[in-house]
Amino acid sequence: MGLVVLVVVLRSRIFKLGLLLALLGLVLIVMPLRQQVLPALAARSEQKELKEQLHHIFTTRAQSLVNGNYEGLKAYYDTTVTSGLFALNHEIGRIKYVREWVKERQVIVSGSQMDLAIIDAGSEEGKGWASVSQHIILNYHHQGEPEKTINQMGVRTIHWVELVKRDGQWLIARDWYWDPFEADNLDPDITPGTARCSREVAPPPPGKYRRQAAVSYADRYSGVRLGPGDGRYNQAYRDFTGLGGDCANFVSQVLSDKNAGAIPRDWVWNYHNGNGSQAWVQAEALVHYLLDSGLAVRIMRGNFEEVTRTSTTYPQGAVNALQPGDIIAYEEKGEISHVSVVVGRDSAGYLLVNSHTADRARVPWDMGWDRRTIYWLLQVVY
């Protein structure tokens, strides 16, 4: 009997020891996992919080662009660093610019839609970063038109955002992007007046240039999600945005692609194997090539007041002699820095353009520019 009891006791102790060793092994397995899982979960939660804050900030900024109220924006920026203060002032400047432009052009912005895509984002130790693509569509009509009249203009911006977490909230410390409503300062200087036009305008000059195909191409590949199939660049061409800008590359495509204007290229103005010639990719070189080659003529070069002034030659202003498929170039400080393509008119006959860098779709031709801008009006005559 004593032997039996001893065996039972030993088995019990062995069982308990085995159980204890099993539990110890489980702890040794779980603890490293816990050390890996918990930080991962915390990081995932922080990234989710970061993305939610980005959506909130960009939504608020889009609303401010429409209503002109920027008073609450400071709460979303780290103004203790120069780059954060600059980002805030830039946003205030563009809101002031849009507000001033619509006042001078007698335009009423009635609403907006926003499409936001956070392409990539991350955070570590209270610092975050994100790559963000934002499409904004503004609904508008001109003063004197029925309120039910709706025109739409669209812009797309690609942002590189750096953030910092202070007092439990993510704040913008840096925001870099090409801005269609660029403002040099907080006091926009816009020439008063408007450039409305009657719907009766002279027909385009006869030629081989496929104007309607050029406009369709410009609408499809503007980069702005304004309608079905829009919102991309043509992947058959390289994007030169990070190499000085893509505006001339886009206009060159509109003029020459076989599915667009179909103007023949030559060795001076050409694109091959992912590379474009200087006349293809650089705005000023493209303008001078079009003029020197005889593919286009310059109707006028002047500021807003000059190109909209009525005359015997241009009863509705020189700018309104342009036709869909024609080109407007923008000169700043003596240099042509941008080109866009005319794509049509809005309900009041105001000329609309598309461009890359920054991306615009059916935006009034002078929106984003100020009193100092000199406009080159080019009519394609091929």
Description of the molecule:
This protein is α+β, with helices and mostly antiparallel strands and 382 residues long. It folds into 2 domains: 44-176, Nuclear Transport Factor 2, Chain: A (Roll), CATH 3.10.450.50; 211-380, no CATH class. The protein is built from 7 helices and 12 strands. It has helices spanning 2-67, 82-104, 211-220, 247-256, 278-281, 283-292, 304-308, and strands at 107-124, 127-142, 151-166, 169-176, 271-272, 275-276, 296-302, 327-332, 335-345, 351-355, 359-364, 374-380. The strands form 2 sheets. Strands 1, 2, 3, 4, 7, 8, 9, 10, 11 and 12 form a 10-stranded antiparallel beta sheet that branches. Strand 3 and strand 4 form a beta hairpin. Helix 1 (2-67) packs parallel to helix 2 (82-104) and helix 3 (211-220) packs across helix 4 (247-256). The longest helix has 66 residues, at 2-67. The termini are far apart. 38% of the residues are buried. Pfam families: Amidase_6. This is Putative amidase domain protein. InterPro entries: Amidase_6.
| 3D shape | globular
Question: What would you call the structural class?
Answer: alpha+beta
Low-confidence regions:
3-10
| Secondary-structure element pattern, one letter each | HHEEEEHHEEHHEHEEEEE
Q: State the helical fraction.
A: 25-40%
Mean pLDDT across every amino acid position: 88
Protein name: Putative amidase domain protein
InterPro entries: Amidase_6 (IPR024301)
Domain Putative amidase: 208-374
Organism: Moorella mulderi DSM 14980
